[in-house]
Amino acid sequence: MNTVELIEALNEIAKEKGIDKDYIFTALESALVSAYKKNYGTAQNVKVVINRENGDIHVYAQKKVVDDVKNSLLEISLEDAKNINPIYKLDDIVDIEVTPKDFGRVAAQTAKQSVIQKIKEAEREILYKEFVEKENDLITGMVQRKEKTKEGNKYNVIVEIGRWETVLPPSEQMPNDAYNQGDRLKFYITEVRKTGKGPDVVISRTHPGLVKRLFELEVPEIFNGVVEIKSIAREAGSRTKIAVHSRDENVDPTGACVGPKGIRVQNVVNELNGEKIDIVKWSKDPAEFIANALSPAKVISVEVNEDDRSAKVIVPDYQLSLAIGKEGQNARLAAKLTGWKIDIKSESQAKID
């Protein structure tokens, strides 16, 4: 490969990979400095310059201008420097060309190894930046395969996200998802870490942020800030409670989230493979908020204790099991949603107490 072909190849690679071509040239120049020292065994301070237009390669020995030369490989006298160019003065650095005649051959060999390495590094960096911008956001991925974990009865799911593959571990999987090869699902990116092998993209199907982002996609009023999601409590694959508030008194926050004929919330439910979603109205009044959070159960009264953030809730006898929920789920999610400890009693129990 001659120098012109080298330039054409580097320009093409840079364009195809979306990499700054100056990054590749600078990296190649650094690699050629090492190649020069290795092949020509000098202890000089050298620099290599590649002409970006025609590919010409020049090697320069860099020498410091001094009064008394003690090391001719690193220093040059002021008199000799001025013979090269009268403008030089003490402590300046003089570039003296020392390009070997056969350096093109060395350059070609070095270029191939260096460029391949630097392209991989640049691609990893581009991918990292691409994913780190999506941290705490949604990404659509395609299930590639399942791999058994060390436990044996659990699987890691390998997911293709754009030009990259990542792992969805058992802890981030929804129990009601099948994860069949070719399934296209939305995932929540919880974290992006930089590693030597490329970005480590941590994705989840269980994170409450997934529900929040899905509602932002479906509900324009949330996306534009008119309706605000105040809190989310989720037991992934089973049930989620979401508390919403409207900044505009003319906009019903729960109605906006449900959508015409329930289409908006249904789209979220479909993406979550049937997970139930309760949309409740947030209130700055703790008693009102707690009563709303226990929906769909009806509440008679709520007595709050601000000191320990606890609340005693009275419900009709026939609503007790609904308020508590199956295996205590409704009460548990309501407590998580509001941040209050909730003690639920039926009307009959309250009278006995």
Automatic annotation (TrEMBL):
InterPro entries: KH_dom-like_a/b (IPR015946), KH_NusA_2nd (IPR058582), KH_sf_prok-type (IPR009019), NA-bd_OB-fold (IPR012340), NusA_N_sf (IPR036555), S1_domain (IPR003029), TF_NusA (IPR010213), TF_NusA_bacterial (IPR030842)
Single GO term (MF): DNA-binding transcription factor activity
Keywords: Cytoplasm, RNA-binding, Transcription, Transcription antitermination, Transcription regulation, Transcription termination
Domain of life of the organism encoding this protein: Bacteria
S1 motif domain ranges (all copies): 134-204
A Pfam family recorded for this sequence: KH_NusA_2nd
Annotated localization: Cytoplasm
Hydrolase keyword on record: no
Function: Participates in both transcription termination and antitermination.
Family, similarity comment: Belongs to the NusA family.
Protein's UniProt name: Transcription termination/antitermination protein NusA
Gene name per UniProt: nusA
